[in-house]
Specification:
Layout: H1 10-26, E1 37-44, E2 47-54, E3 82-86, E4 90-92, E5 95-97, E6 100-107, E7 113-118, E8 133-157, E9 162-180
Antiparallel strand pairs: 1-2, 2-3, 3-6, 4-5, 4-9, 6-7, 7-8, 8-9
Length: 181
């Protein structure tokens, strides 16, 4: 599956129209739906693992099954594709990930999520190219008792060479264990 941006002639018009509306309502460059950059990192087995992403907020919207539709590839954040950088080879679920940089995508579902590790980084959030997938792995889902307003990615150390990657938003946590090798 490859999702494309609007055609080059239409994209600038859409961008100008959106910018004008945003500036008029919230001031220059401001939107109540701004998704600021965020980062999560952990050191496991003396090697750093970092995730860089953009963090959207709920703003009263239904997220899971609404803003983030079920069964569709999601960029797992906003703006630019979420990037994971690892200084150690990792075993993420059933995937053996070499040292390097990758993008993280997901397919959210009501009962299960799929983590997608893609070889391309830096792409716009709609420019997913399945031909560049490194692999896919199932994630564990957990319902949260209280809603989380702003999307968050947690990297948690779980001992000397183990950790967890968790995606937390609204009342959902999707997680997957990893091991540094």
């Amino acid at each position: 599956m490859h999702v494309r941006r609007p055609t080059p002639l239409i994209a600038p018009v859409i961008a100008l129209a959106c910018a004008a509306g945003v500036s008029a309502q919230f001031g220059p460059g401001r939107s109540k739906y701004t998704s600021p950059p965020a980062q999560s990192s952990v050191t496991v087995a003396d090697k750093k693992i970092t995730v860089d992403y953009y963090a959207p907020s709920m703003h009263g919207r239904q997220v899971m099954g609404g803003l983030v539709p079920f069964g569709v590839v999601w960029c797992t954040g906003a703006n630019i594709a979420t990037k994971i950088t690892t200084e150690a080879p990792l075993r993420v679920g059933n995937l053996d990930l070499p040292i390097g940089e990758y993008s993280i995508w997901t397919i959210p579902g009501e009962k299960e999520w799929t983590l997608i590790i893609n070889k391309e980084t830096g792409q716009f959030h709609l420019d997913y190219n399945a031909r560049l997938d490194f692999g896919r792995a199932k994630m564990t889902l957990k319902s949260l008792s209280a809603p989380v307003e702003t999307f968050r990615i947690d990297l948690r150390g779980e001992g000397s060479n183990k950790g967890t990657l968790a995606l937390v938003w609204e009342k959902t946590e999707a997680s997957i264990p990893f091991t540094a090798r």
